[in-house]
Amino acid sequence: MREALRQVWANPYVRVGTLLLGLWLVYLLLLRTSAVWVGFLIAYTLAYLADPLVVWLERHRVRRAFGVLVVYTLFFLFLGLASVLLAEVVTQLSQLSEKLPEIIRPFNGWVERLPGLLRDWARAPEVQAVLAHVSDSLQTLLEGFSDTLVSWLGGLLDRGGNLIAGLAALAGGLVQLFVVFVVTGYLLADLPRVNAALLEALPRPWQPLALELAGKLDHAVGGYIRGQLLVAALVGLVVGLGLALIGVPMAAALGFIAGVFNLVPYLGVVVSIVPALLLALSVGTWQVLGALLVFVLANQLEAHVFSPLILGRATELHPITVVLSIMAGAALAGIWGAMLAVPAMAFAKVLYTDYYLPSRCHEQGC
User: Fold this and answer.
1) DSSP notation for 99-151
2) Which residue among 75, 159, 293, 340 is the one 20 to 30 A from 111 at the CA level?
3) Sequence-separated (6 or more) residues with CB below 8 Å from residue 298
4) Phi-psi sector, 160: left (phi>0), alpha (psi -120 to 50), beta
5) Rg of the Cα trace of the chain?
6) pLDDT tens-digit profile of 281-339?
């Protein structure tokens, strides 16, 4: 019987068919339990990102279990602060949208007086018609920006007025969110052993390559994500302090929004500057110019100081590559795709430069 089975297994069609059947069964299993694996991946990612802080606390003689408690405390404090700041911004912008016509009125008067200032050529009926149209279009545009922004930010708070409910919807429910938090705690408390167990599950000949790839992945992707979080925090601090100095209301909340949206390269600047300019407009024209200067300063500090010092050259990508990656990621998976596109491209660059370019396939042809 054993010899007969050995002869059957020697047939390549039997082996290929068995492999395909096994892969199909694994696919069905993963599909039926997708919520479990997605939750585990989210928990592992959170634990992986928070692990450097726990390791730092361990080096300062803080037990790992207590370090996990510190991380959880900071995380929930962040969620509470984010909820309060977003709620205040929504309230301020809602009030601003009602007062916007009154705020715009001085600008309309200045536009109406502009023909006299520009002498004879500006007195032509065609030019006056264009100026009037520009004034009306500007008011409509600002009102539309304000209403859209209030509606969008309000959508983040429509479940109980806090971000925890929004995260619950993202994770698929409160129960799954609770499970993710619990699993994250267990993983974070014992992450070195978990990583060792995952490595041991691989065939031994593959383990050196897996360790090498994991190190490069941690340097390119993990380093980028953690560094980008720190850069975003510094940008938010600069914007918040700058807006507070020039007297823009809700400066702390605007700095928080600027920091959060800075996680999306290029797109974040456009999204975060709109509420700042609208709230600055409620104070005066000089505050609007000052807010623009604050964002320019924050952008220049990020480009020439924060990013080079914190991120280094490990994940340096050409700006065209970054823009195309963000567009492709947004098209595939929305805002999350846009945020993850750059670190994914950074790791792809590592694979390209460290493995493909030195390979025989590249040197001599495949």
Assistant:
1) HHHHHHHHHHHHHHHHHHHTTGGGGSHHHHHHHHHHHHHHHHHHHHHHHHHHH
2) 293
3) 235, 238, 239, 242, 258
4) left
5) 27
6) 777 778 888 989 999 898 888 877 877 777 655 556 666 777 787 778 878 877 677 77
Closest CA to 261 of 225, 228, 232, 227: 232
Contacts of 281 (CB under 8 A, 6+ apart): 96, 103, 142, 287, 288
With beta carbons less than 8 A apart as the criterion, state whether 353 and 316 touch: no
∠73-76-79 over CA atoms, to 5°? Answer: 150
Residue pair 248/279 in contact (Cβ under 8 Å)? The answer is: yes
Helix axis angle, 267-281 relative to 223-245, nearest 10°?
A: 20
pLDDT value at position 354?
80
Distance of CA 140 to the CA centre of its chain: 30
pLDDT single digits (tens) 29-69: 888 887 788 888 888 888 888 888 888 888 888 888 888 89
pLDDT tens profile 120-164:
444 556 555 655 655 565 556 555 655 565 565 555 555 444 445
